[in-house]
Amino acid sequence: MSLADIWAEAIGVERDVDGQPSLGTVLAHIRGAVIETGYVSHGRITSGLKEAYRPLGVDEKKLRDAIDEALRLLLLSGDFDEFTTGAGRGYAATSPRCVAWGGNSVALLGGTLGGNDTELVRHVSVDEVVATTITIPLAIELGRPEWRTALVDLNAADVLADGVGALFSRASTLAASGERYSLDEPLAVAVLSGRGRFFGRPESAPSGRWQRVAENGCFPAVIKSGFVSRYVVLNVADGEATLWQPASRDLWRWIVVGATMASGDQFISYDLATQRLDFLTPPPRQIERAALLTGTRIGPWSWNVDAQVHGVIVELTTAAR
Asked: pTM for the complete prediction?
């Protein structure tokens, strides 16, 4: 056994196929440090892990990427809160709690101890939950559907009958009276005007549901200028175009879900026999969080989740909540 192997075993490092610390290891070390100390700055996390993994000969760029992804997942799950101070970003554990959805296990969040620390989200069986730990139903933990909050901000709080499709309708209205856009560079813009399960990419040769502007209508769109991409809603009428740009990329993803459902297509696919959930559009943060908290990731847009979770995700897009 090499010195690197001895050191890896001593500090509990699992390595991937390239010999780098696995994402689960990086996440576990960050989670443990924050829970133990209460608050850790971003700089301290980065410098501490670089030093701890130095004997392993890690690739620093890959380590930075792993740290960024680990922090994204810890924030997405609700394990951590992020704070900005004069010294920069820092992280603290949220309140200890577990999240239940009617399955055989629950998710442990925040300062709660237990479970497998290298899991993206720690899970334990329902029987292992400590009596003093607060248990919160998944639907309550996720909260109000974020597209409904967006409708309030867009002065359309009373338009809920069509579920998340109402958000696309409101975005279309804003695009129709929005900023003018010239179609003189047709290769700079791709619109989500196609149909089908394969979402594709708005690249130089658009794939899947992405196409160049070829007809009138209102569409989620991506406009590229150099290395910058704008995620907008584009209204096209007789060769003229106007657009509206949502305040965030996540809001644009909700609009894509609304546009997909308004056209009669599905934004997710669920197989009850295998419990496989596939996202057919980029999942908004709240929906991705539901899958992260409860399931096992089997692909970039694919998870194994219980049928109860599938029901909660569907409810997030309806007017009922």
From this structure: 0.92
Q: Cα–Cα–Cα angle for 47, 51, 54, nearest 5°?
A: 135
Instruction: Write down the residue that tokens 């791709």 correspond to.
Output: 190
Is the Cβ–Cβ distance between 106 and 135 less than 8 Å?
yes
Tell me, rounded to whole angstroms, the distance of Cα 229 from its chain centroid.
19
Task: In whole angstroms, give the CA distance from residue 31 to residue 162.
Answer: 40
Give the angle 90-95-101 at the CA atoms, nearest 5°.
Answer: 120
The full length of the chain comes to 321
290: nearest Cα among 266, 314, 269: 314
Phi, psi (deg, nearest 5) at residue 23: -60, -40
Token code pair at residue 98 = 């577990």
169-212: per-residue pLDDT in tens? Answer: 999 999 999 999 999 998 999 999 999 899 999 988 899 999 99
Judge whether 192 and 219 are in contact, CB under 8 Å: yes
